[in-house]
Amino acid sequence: MSGTVIEKETVVEPAAINAWAEGRRIFVELTDGRIISFPADRFRLLKAASDDQLKKVELRLNGYALRWEELDEDITVPGIVAGKFELP
What we know:
The protein is an alpha+beta fold. It contains 3 helices and 6 strands; from the N terminus they run βββααβββα.
């Protein structure tokens, strides 16, 4: 009996290895070498944050999330890469 073997392709989403704020933009360096950024004002809580609060971004979940503890805000890295931004 012969059959067809279908190999399942594994898709690995890039994680963040670094994140920082410059002015009102958030920058994320990814494991695949890309550096992407987005305006903080696309997210309600980040829009209301001071520049100093924005700078307190931390990586969480092995680089799959950004966290602002003081603001109680979390944003997923796969969501950012996919362009899924909360609108103001």
